[in-house]
């Protein structure tokens, strides 16, 4: 199981995931045991942290609530249907504070669906309508 790694590794690159790993299934299982909102930053493309070819998807889970944020080439997007009016604290792999902007929260099933799509396409999920994040 990947769960041990998820508990301690908040930054994951899709190329580093062992196949066949169902990260969505692992997060579903983990979500049943979480006491705090947790999030992970998954990346695809270049492994160079400063490359503009590197794309990232923040995924958070906590019970029935999920969270999403897309980061690419200096662009920060959140779901257009996101429900949180204010910044929310999630914990990166359950350890460190990670703040998510307004409108990042969605039903957890939407977060799972977006993650599943990202793992296959390695591109911004199309199952979500995106808008610019309010970073102020």
Structural class category: alpha+beta
> What is the overall pLDDT average?
89
Number of continuous helical runs: 3
Largest sheet: 9 strands, mixed
The dominant shape is: globular
Strand proportion:
25-35%
Q: What's the number of extended β-strand segments?
A: 9
What is the percent of helical residues? 10-25%
For the record, the count of structural domains works out to 1
| Uncertain parts | none
Amino- and carboxy-terminal Cα gap: 39 Å
The Cα radius of gyration reads: 14 Å
Could you spell the SSE succession in H and E letters?
HEHEEEEEEEHE
Explain what the structure shows.
This protein has 136 residues and is α+β, with helices and mostly antiparallel strands. It has one domain (3-132). Helix content is 21%, strand content 35%. The protein contains three helices and nine strands. It has helices at residues 3-8, 23-31, 108-121, and strands spanning 11-13, 38-44, 55-62, 65-72, 75-79, 88-92, 96-100, 105-107, 130-132. Strands 1, 2, 3, 4, 5, 6, 7, 8 and 9 form a nine-stranded mixed β-sheet that branches. Strand 6 (88-92) and strand 7 form a beta hairpin. The chain is globular, with a radius of gyration of 14 Å.
